[in-house]
């Protein structure tokens, strides 16, 4: 039973346009969410996170939106750049003392940004 | 600030053998988590170590075991290797009680079991 799902295995966008990556979760205990980016032959790199007390968090070109009632979050990248081409993973965690150290990941979405 | 490092980079083992993978945490971090990433899938949580004790475990059998040392480095041991153990093994470090839940990953060890 996948508790975190990324239903789009791949996404292709034009340079300069917006990339929207989606993630759904089922476990109501999750209240902290993270996005990681992964290049081939490298470990996942932390990108941005959001707590369930917020519905939006922004960091430069990256914005994460959380719809807690729908158990859905999305990552927006504006404008998209060719260097953003990578696999993006959504991850979720419960919070509380040390509870947050077990991340549950989605299956990933491969983003391709075309010049 | 030193990032998370893992060794070896690649490893080939035969079914039934045992393997030890190593991880050095990012400086200042006191918690280490291990993940298994099969091809085409997201990382799956194996276990976490805090203060040299296992502090959470995913759905992995007991032949997956680990250690954390006083300097917060860690080992993952897998006994009686099976073909399905072929995967990328990722180590991640974090700081418990930091108020955030970000984990910082190493580059991984690619294990192939033949």
Please tell me about this protein's structure.
The complex is a heterodimer of chains A (115) and B (114). Chain A has 115 residues and is mainly beta. Chain A has strands at residues 4-5, 10-14, 19-25, 32-38, 45-51, 56-59, 62-67, 72-77, 86-93, 104-105, 109-114. In chain A, a hairpin with a 6-residue loop joins strand 4 and strand 5. Chain A is globular and about 40 Å long. Chain A starts with a strand and ends with a strand. With 114 residues, chain B is mostly beta strands. In chain B, strands 2, 4, 5, 6, 9, 10 and 11 form a 7-stranded mixed sheet that branches. A 4-stranded antiparallel sheet of chain B has the order 1-3-8-7, with no helix packed on it. The radius of gyration of chain B is 13 Å and the shape is globular. Chain B starts with a strand and ends with a strand. At the A-B interface, strand 4, strand 5, strand 9 and strand 10 of A face strand 4, strand 5, strand 9 and strand 10 of B.
List the keywords:
heterodimer, A: 115 residues, mainly beta, 52% strand, globular, B: 114 residues, seven-stranded mixed sheet, four-stranded antiparallel sheet
Largest sheet of chain B: 7 strands, mixed
User: Are there runs of chain A of 5+ residues with pLDDT below 50, and where?
Assistant: none
Distance between the termini of chain B: 38 Å
Overall residue-averaged pLDDT value of chain A:
93
Low-confidence stretches of chain B: none
Shape of chain A: globular
Number of helices of chain A: 0
Subunit arrangement of the protein: heterodimer
Shape of chain B: globular
Structural class of chain B: mainly beta
**N- to C-terminal separation of chain A?**
38 Å
Q: Could you tell me the radius of gyration of chain A in angstroms?
A: 14 Å
**Strand residues, percent of chain B:** over 45%
SS elements, strand count of chain A: 11
Question: Helix and strand succession of chain A?
Answer: EEEEEEEEEEE
Give the averaged pLDDT of chain B, no decimals.
Answer: 92
Helix content of chain B: under 10%
Helix content of chain A: under 10%
Percent of residues in β-strands of chain A: over 45%
Class per helix and strand makeup of chain A: mainly beta
Q: Can you count the beta strands of chain B?
A: 11
């Amino acid at each position: 039973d996948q508790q975190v799902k990324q239903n789009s295995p791949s996404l292709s966008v034009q340079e300069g346009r917006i990339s929207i990556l989606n993630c759904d979760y089922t476990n109501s205990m999750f209240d902290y969410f993270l996005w990681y980016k992964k290049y081939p032959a490298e470990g996942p790199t932390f990108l941005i996170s959001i707590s369930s007390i917020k519905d939006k968090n922004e960091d430069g070109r990256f914005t994460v939106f959380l719809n807690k009632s729908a158990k859905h979050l999305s990552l927006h990248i504006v404008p998209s750049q060719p260097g953003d081409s990578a696999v993006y993973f959504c991850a979720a965690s419960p919070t509380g003392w040390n509870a947050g150290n077990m991340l549950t990941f989605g299956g990933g979405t491969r983003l391709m940004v075309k010049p | 600030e030193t990032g998370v490092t893992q060794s070896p980079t690649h490893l080939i083992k035969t079914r039934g053998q045992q393997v030890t993978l190593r991880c050095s945490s990012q400086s200042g971090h006191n918690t280490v988590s291990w993940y298994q990433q099969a091809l085409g899938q997201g990382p799956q949580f194996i276990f976490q170590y805090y203060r040299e004790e296992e502090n959470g475990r995913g759905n992995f059998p007991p032949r997956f075991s680990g250690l954390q040392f006083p300097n917060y480095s860690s080992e993952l041991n897998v006994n009686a290797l099976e073909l399905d153990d072929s995967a990328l093994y990722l180590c991640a470090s974090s700081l418990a009680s930091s108020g955030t839940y970000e984990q910082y990953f190493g580059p991984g060890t690619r294990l192939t079991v033949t």
